[in-house]
Design brief:
The protein has 16 helices and 2 strands. The chain is an all-alpha fold and about 425 residues long. It has a two-stranded antiparallel sheet. Strand 1 and strand 2 form a beta hairpin. Helix 11 crosses helix 12, helix 13 runs antiparallel to helix 16 and helix 15 packs across helix 16.
């Protein structure tokens, strides 16, 4: 209405796409509250991903200029007479145009300086992403020239890439911050396991017997590591297409955080259950017992095949049952799961509650094995023959007692039987 002069805003064309989106009409004044507050409540420091960034003195002086222009505008408005004459109105109109023009120039100077410096800070904050992208591209080039996954140059570049991923992970995945990263070592071991599995000798069974299924457990964990690493690399290949849209506070990027979390969990899981060897062996014995339980209980087999949600209530109970049947041999794994129930360093250093649990289980198991008829008759194949001597078998009694416990565990506390 006053036709106050507007300073040119051509500099907005140079803003990144996310900042241009804040100004739909590049040439309009478009005074934003957040920029006004930044100028009025000046703070020259920004913290992004745990790093400190300081705005320049030029930005500080531009903020001071905006504050002075705002103060001058307020002072002029305060001095305005409530009953001006026509002459005063004409003069005041010209004065107000000048004051508003000065404020607009101060605004433009601050907006340009402030936003450009924010863009620079955000670019530096995204530097963790761009450095990881660069290392992934180098790895791609090396892979294109080499067919040997185990060659030293590839191994070294994977290590460099994972160092960049680790720094990225520390910034994006706040739950993981401060952890010791062993991802590179675990990845190389996982790649070796998968490569061995894919060799003709391995597929033909020439690698020898594996009664406890340790190789299968290693393979499943290794495949999880390799797949999670591939997912991280896929993200790094795609992210340059929208790099300006990556939130500078990396923890606010859900896609990045999801991949970092999956990668961390996969290599930590693999390291946790394959090192030391005793823990892997315990895992394999547990898997064997679970397969036995499947054969005993069709309901459990159905839960596993259908990925029934109830399975995740049953599995912890089965793990406890497996532990309680032989606590001295399975302490290492249970210690990982419930460390607060152990005292001291040894895997058999059970706490009071856990020890009482073991004792009560032994009593129940023994009473169940001694129940009439649970040992059953041990009969030859043709049980219809006359004159057969029926005998009691402690081994059969123990097995049937275990089957009864499995059935009870699978049924859960809400079922009778």
């Amino acid at each position: 209405a006053l036709r106050a002069p507007a300073a040119p805003r051509r500099y907005r064309h140079d803003f990144t796409v996310n900042y241009r989106a804040l100004f739909p009409d590049i040439n309009a004044r478009h005074y934003r509250v957040d920029i006004f507050e930044a100028g009025m409540l000046w703070s020259g420091t920004r913290w992004v991903n745990g790093d400190r960034f300081d705005l320049t003195q030029e930005a500080f002086h531009a903020a001071e200029g905006l504050q002075c222009a705002w103060t001058a505008l307020g002072a002029w408005l305060s001095s305005w007479s409530l009953t001006p004459s026509k002459t005063q109105v004409a003069r005041a109109r010209a004065e107000l145009q000048d004051v508003l023009g000065a404020f607009d120039k101060a605004w433009v100077r601050f907006e340009q300086k402030y936003v450009v410096e924010l863009i620079d800070i955000e670019a530096k904050a995204r530097g963790l992403v761009t450095r990881a992208v660069e290392e992934e591209q180098k790895l791609q080039l090396l892979e294109a020239d080499s067919t040997d996954e185990g060659c030293e140059e590839l191994r070294e570049q994977r290590k460099v890439l994972l160092a960049a991923v680790s720094r990225l992970n520390s910034a994006a995945n706040l739950r993981w911050k401060g952890h010791h990263d062993r991802g590179a070592d675990v990845l190389e071991a996982a790649l070796a396991v998968v490569a061995h599995h894919n060799t003709p000798q391995s597929s033909s069974g020439a690698s020898g017997e594996d009664p406890r299924g340790e190789r299968n457990v290693r393979l499943v964990l290794a495949q999880g590591v390799v797949e999670a690493f591939a997912s991280v690399r896929e993200y790094l290949r795609e992210v340059p297409k929208w790099i300006d849209s990556v939130h500078p506070h990396l923890c606010n990027n859900t896609g990045l955080v999801a991949r970092m979390t999956a990668w961390t969990e996969s290599w930590e899981l693999s390291a946790r259950y394959t090192e030391p060897a005793e823990l892997l062996q315990a895992m394999c014995r547990l898997v064997q017992k679970l397969h036995e339980a499947r054969r005993v209980m069709p309901a459990l087999a159905s839960m596993c095949d259908d990925c029934d949600v109830e399975l995740f209530l049953v599995l912890p109970r089965l793990v406890w049952l497996w532990f309680l049947t032989e606590p001295s041999g399975h302490g290492a794994l249970i210690r990982r799961l419930v460390p607060h129930h152990f005292i001291g360093e040894g895997d058999a250093a059970f706490g009071r509650q856990l020890l009482e649990f073991v004792v009560r289980f032994r009593r129940v198991s023994a009473a169940l094995a001694e129940a009439p008829g649970i040992g059953g008759p041990v009969l030859p194949p043709d049980s219809r023959l006359s004159g057969i001597q029926i005998t009691y078998s402690p081994a059969v009694a123990k097995q049937r007692a275990w089957e009864a416990l499995v059935a009870r565990v699978v049924a859960g506390p809400g079922e009778s039987g």
